[in-house]
């Protein structure tokens, strides 16, 4: 039987982490990425070296695979539409991606389909930042409408002077303004939908962000059952409305008065789901490949009492592989370390992650809650990585 070939637009660690699942399913990955040293280049059956928004390169990609999926959302949707009209298969479809790539359009769409979101307004380039009627009180959150990730392009603004300064500093950027949410916790959920309409949701997780970059994820989140059910309903409603095929990451706020608000949608596998590689019956990466190749979806259940995933972020400019630190972290009981083989470290860059599983006997023998035990592990890992 001829092996299936899946094209992936983007060659970072998300594509790289599909490798094990691809091998298991008998799938070859063909990657479109601009840099020959990107992580996924090492595991791809074939690589097309081109920018992710290069539609001509995507034609070459389509000629080498059965279906195309996405590692990131930095694509040129308008340039890809003629390809879809010619019959090239994108999953998720371009129609599903269309309302999500621009953060303002995403907010409008979520509100339109009845999902709870923070109050927001667009700040267009021809507006005057000082005189614009924001209808929001400071502090406010300013987000670039396109191409923001890992905290880049997001600012918490204290007054109009600050807003005007950033507005003038980035003259070519379109902005979304939204109310600042004094949340109790940040949450996330990974959900998948198949070609046949089967929907699978993973456990709701709690995420910890510092400087708008995720530092760790705890699975499962310790939530009241009704809040967990509400978040699952949000995920299912969104995927059904969009008729998604593939995996989505959904980030949310839980307010101090118990309300759930949708923060952002990632139309792809997501950092908040990395724990699934080691803690769940099926990883988000296998789930993605199964969905886009028209296979039935599997189980998203946890196979342990709990898990914590800690991102190993760059904290200096260097070319070190940090082998000694990695060895010490990997020696933690029930730890699974994933190193992305990036050649350069810089502050905030995701170099790898480690997931530690909490076994049932450990969870029940301790006087601490599952969350307390996992937080203790997260702090130990960060001490080993960043130093005391």
From TrEMBL:
Chain ranges of the ATP-grasp domain? 107-293
Annotated positions binding ATP: 103, 143, 178-181, 186, 263-264
The EC number(s) attached to this protein equal 6.3.4.18
Family membership: Belongs to the PurK/PurT family.
To which pathway does this protein belong? Purine metabolism; IMP biosynthesis via de novo pathway; 5-amino-1-(5-phospho-D-ribosyl)imidazole-4-carboxylate from 5-amino-1-(5-phospho-D-ribosyl)imidazole (N5-CAIR route): step 1/2
GO CC, sorted alphabetically, is: cytosol
Where on the tree of life does the source sit, at the highest rank?
A: Bacteria
State the name under which the record lists this protein: N5-carboxyaminoimidazole ribonucleotide synthase
Q: What do we know about how this protein assembles, alone or with others?
A: Homodimer.
Catalysis: reaction(s): 5-amino-1-(5-phospho-beta-D-ribosyl)imidazole + hydrogencarbonate + ATP = 5-carboxyamino-1-(5-phospho-D-ribosyl)imidazole + ADP + phosphate + 2 H(+)
SUPFAM superfamilies attached here?
A: Glutathione synthetase ATP-binding domain-like (SSF56059), PreATP-grasp domain (SSF52440), Rudiment single hybrid motif (SSF51246)
Q: What class of enzyme is it?
A: ligase
Gene name linked to the record: purK
Q: Example GO biological process term?
A: 'de novo' IMP biosynthetic process
Summarizing the function annotation, the protein's role is: Catalyzes the ATP-dependent conversion of 5-aminoimidazole ribonucleotide (AIR) and HCO(3)(-) to N5-carboxyaminoimidazole ribonucleotide (N5-CAIR).
Question: Taxonomic lineage of this organism?
Answer: Bacteria, Bacillati, Cyanobacteriota, Cyanophyceae, Pleurocapsales
- Has the keyword rRNA-binding been applied to this entry? no
